[in-house]
Amino acid sequence: MFLWHKKTKLILLALVLLPSSLHATTTPKQTTIRFAVNTPGSAPYLYYDVTTGKYQGVVVDFFNTIAQNKLTVSYLDSNRARSEQLVHTSAVDAFLSSPNWLEHPDDFIYSVPLIRHDSYMYKTSEFSEPFDATKLNGSSVCTRYAFVYPVLQPFFDMHENGLVRVNSSSHETMATMLTKGRCEFAIMSEQNARSIMFNEKFCSNTFYQSLNVINGVELVFVLRPELVDFQAVINEALTKFVISGAREEALKRHSGDASFPKGKC
Question: Which positions ≥6 away from 169 have C-beta within 8 Å?
């Protein structure tokens, strides 16, 4: 009889502790996350809004959905090349990127994908055929400073008959340089292009999108390897964010739903 009571108490104790154990897997030990931003950001994902004086975008909207977990996100100015080093040294905890763009991708852990990031070429006149770098010797391409473009890099590295890289500080500046003839093409994702090129600032300009995708990657949250518990929280919340349609709503809110070609107003 005593043995039965002892077993019963152990079973009841296990049942009491079980929910706590399950809850612990979805509650991060670290409640403040330092998130590096490729200043001035990249709309519609994460960008600085001069009107509010705060960072806005799909990333901010996502983290707001898990605020009930008492998670605070602090956005810190950085750049793509520096962000990787900052996570290495534990100066920051996370940033948005793709493993394809990192110098040491095996040194981090990752979330499930936030979004598919397909890059296109853009120019101010119509494309008559798919973009082919092998046929455009000496053509200039506006790029974002410190950004990696794996498909185009071999052509940028050519001393002759390659492509000329023209660096810029932001996607908006890239579009401006394109309109002024500082470069013949600009490369960016469709989401980036839509959020910038349909802005009133470019009302008098036309923009055309290449007929083919230049490069495609999955954007994920890059995390310090110690943040396994936080990774679990992000993965659970991010899956819900995508399936519920909240991600698509956020994309429309920050970049609209216009389609290319973009004509004059």
Answer: 40, 144, 145
Q: What is the pLDDT of residue 40?
A: 84
The rounded distance, in Å, linking the Cα atoms of 81 and 259 is 31
Q: Tell me: the pLDDT tens digits for 125-179? A: 999 999 999 999 899 999 999 888 999 999 999 988 899 999 999 999 999 999 9
Asked whether 184 and 163 are in contact (CB, 8 A), the reply is no
- pTM equals 0.82
CATH classification number, 32-116+218-255, choose in 3.40.190.10, 3.40.605.10, 3.40.50.880, 2.60.40.3090: 3.40.190.10
The 10 Å CB-count burial string (b at 16+, else e) for 19-41 is eeeeeeeebbeeeebbbbbbbbb
Find where tokens 């470019």 sit.
202
Phi, psi of 241 (to 5 degrees): -60, -40
Domain made up of 118-216: CATH architecture:
3-Layer(aba) Sandwich (3.40)
**CA separation for the pair 95, 42 (Å, rounded):** 12
Per-residue burial over 118-138, b = 16 or more CB atoms within 10 Å of its CB, e = otherwise: ebbbbbbeebeeebebeebee
